[in-house]
Amino acid sequence: MRWIPPVAEALLVAGCLPATAWALEPPAAGPGIATSVEVPLFLDVRLNQQDTGKVLPFVQREGGLWAAPDTLRQLGFALPADQPADLVDLRTLSGVRIAYDVAMQKVAIDAPLALLSLEATMLGTAGVAAPPASNSPGLLLNYNLFGNHDQVSDNATGYLELRAFGGNAGVLSTSLVSRTYRFDGGDWRGDTVRLDSSWQWSFQDRMTTLVVGDTYTGNLGWTRAVRLGGVRFGRDFSLQPYRTTSPLPMFAGEVVVPSEVELYINGIRQYAGEVPVGPFRINSQPSINGAGNAQLVIRDAFGAVRTVNVPFYSTPNLLSAGLSDWSVVMGMVREDYGVRSFSYADRPVGSADYRRGISDRLTVEAHAEGSDTLANAGVGALWSLGAAGVIGASYAHSEQHGRTGEQAGLAYNWTNSRFTFSIDSRRTHGDYRDIASSYGFEPARISERGLAGWNSDRLGSFGVSYARLQQLEEEDDRYGSAYWSHSFGGRWSLSFNYNQNLDDNDDRSFFLGFSLSLDSGRMLNVSGQRNGNRDVASIDLTKAVPGDGGFGWRLRADHGEGDTGGLAELGWLGRHAQLYGGLGNSGGNTYSYASGSGSLVLMEYQVFAARSISDAFAVVSTSGVGGVPVKLENRPIGVTNEKGLLLVTPLNAWQRNLLAIDPMDLPANMRLGKVEMNATPTDRAGTAVRFDVERVRAALLVLQDHAGQPLPLGSRVQLIGGSAQQALVGYDGETYLDTLETRNTMEVTTTQGRCRIHFDYPAVPDAIPRIGPLTCTPEKQP
Asked: Which GO molecular-function terms appear in the entry (predicted)?
């Protein structure tokens, strides 16, 4: 939302300003301004303590300065359009003070903002251009393997995802799951099912994506999405992640002298900068959702400080004014997903969604879908009530085989740092149908939710919720719940949850949990719960697997209704894979399991092993030089292999990812190009990042003449053949060359004439040798 607080008057500094180095009032006579002589002047103008950079015409007359209306308009004075062309005595302008420096031919004018018409200065969040993204040819295979054994059955399951990408060809991907199993030691059986296959192109500059293959229909808050095989084309804001799509709170004010402005959102500084004379506006992107409080702190050029508090409300559910979001989908509905590989309905369907920000406070929505027997269309809107929250409404109408129906919805949400409240009700009437109705469950007759919560630093977090769901020709299900949680000292916490079926007093559940953070990353959890007539108590001791890699484990014991069970699990995360394994007992049944996941990447003619890759990645090349340390966002990420390559994952797609090599750990005989580069890969693909690292034959040469004396300072050295590198002789006859060959000849030009030196480069790995003294033999005269 955009909210401009009426703080202009609060920020207006009216009246007199402190004295400057100039006299604030022009003298009636004397060396300043003459009383009887009219003199034209061209003066450098300073307005309200700020240099304008303008030299404008004035006239000294009758002991004062006069200016033409056009001159005053150039300075920002608001004059009526029919202002006479006669000169204006600046002393007659209310509240205006002038200081004329005769020697420097400058004039300082201090004027109230009420007399000025200045353009507002925009501060804060600015549009950041999306960096061009790229990918390089390659293949990616993600895998997840799982095996389980118990007293009744054995099974093994594998999930595979294959992606192919490169250049402007988009990303081709397919995934499948393969299972094999047996019961009671019988024969093994199995099947393989294809999940999703698609080809996706993204058009970054237009923020649109085209998908051919398995996809899904758009999904507004009041519609239902379905899987289908076909074509989907629509807006994709993720292609420009630096662009803000929701309205930003705007804070405005005015200053009569150059000032420093700071903006705080809920006590956290969001912006600090300088603002020139006149009105200003600050766009800020607060990291909160809901109501908040902003504080503007203005410190002017004279040190005076003013503070203005401004409430606001921010929500990501609205679109900025003029921004639209849309999608169009056509194809066949996917049936039996996860069970059969190629099960599609034989009737084509289509769906379209559209959202647009009419203003920063109103976003409208529209949806249409149908087939040869179904027509469904609806509209909706989200409206910001300012600090009072956001209200949403929707209405849809359908017709199928001559039967019509309607769906209506209403929602409201308000939240701040301590309180939250939301309600959502959606009901259907008649025979309302959508695409999902023909291939699954029909829309609920009644779907309602409500939530109220409160967060207190001393008492913890409280909340109550209500849910109601009534399917067609089924009983009404209504549930209420309450929760409480509180952290004590940051190391231990308590939580309580209660759920009640409002139509069945015997259908209720309780949960009480205790958590304690121990040393070395260990966590102890103790809980008790009652579900219906069943009571269960459990204790769980865990050491999480470190995010940077290493081992973790878990021990768990349960007891309830005379049944005791437990679990022991061990996990490991490495650079190339993640492994889990465990042994447990439940209900008298002992079981064991193991899993492993990771990925294989083919890029730059090499195969890399890595953890599972869900998003983007990069292959760093150091021009064939191995052992080069690489950093991601200034954090060490790995070292290039013997071919000078390193797979870096994960990266953020469509965003700048700072990659760097560390030259401090490289041998001295290396020549470097850039040591930092931004990688911007496309989503679900990899890009190649190449650093120029070259191993050179360099040496510090000590040169002398036939008498054993160092060659003169400034003598010119040039290699003969090869690179023909040139250099100058320094002190003590020393010179440095870094393009040497195995056998070298160089010519030296001195004040005494020319001479030559022949020498071999020694085999000294990873070092710059000091060679010499080398005697320079004079060239024979022809």
From this structure: fimbrial usher porin activity
275: nearest Cα among 251, 249, 243: 251
pLDDT digits (tens, 9 = 90+) for 49-78: 888 888 899 998 888 888 998 889 888 888
d(CA 351, CA 338): 23
- The CA-CA-CA angle for residues 241, 245, 246, to 5°, reads 135
Give residue for tokens 């040393």.
Answer: 519
Distance CA 59, CA 77 (A): 18
Q: Are 380 and 222 in contact (CB under 8 A)?
A: yes
What does the alpha-carbon distance between residue 651 and residue 637 come to, in Å, rounded to a whole number?
A: 12
- Coil, helix or strand at residue 494: strand
What separation in angstroms does the CA of 730 have from each of 87, 712, 745, 761? 71, 8, 19, 21
pTM tops 0.90: no
Percentages helix, strand, coil for the chain (3-state, rounded to 5) are 5, 60, 35
**Radius of gyration, CA atoms only, the chain:** 38
DSSP characters over 177-235: EEEEEEETT---EEEEEEEEEEEEEEEGGGTEEEEEEEEE----TTS---EEEEEEEEE
Cβ contact 509:529 at 8 Å? yes
Per-residue burial over 252-286, b = 16 or more CB atoms within 10 Å of its CB, e = otherwise? bbbbbbebebbbbbeeeebbeeebebbbbbbbbeb
At 499 the pLDDT is: 95
- pLDDT tens, residue by residue, 341-369: 999 999 999 999 999 999 989 999 999 99
Strand runs labelled E in 290-343: 290-300, 305-314, 324-334
Q: What does the pLDDT look like over 439-471, one tens digit per residue?
A: 888 899 999 999 999 998 889 999 999 999 998
DSSP conformation class of 562: T
Closest alpha carbon to 68 in 44, 49, 108, 41: 41
Could you read off the pLDDT of 126-172 as tens digits, one per residue? 555 778 899 999 999 999 999 999 988 999 999 999 999 987 789 99
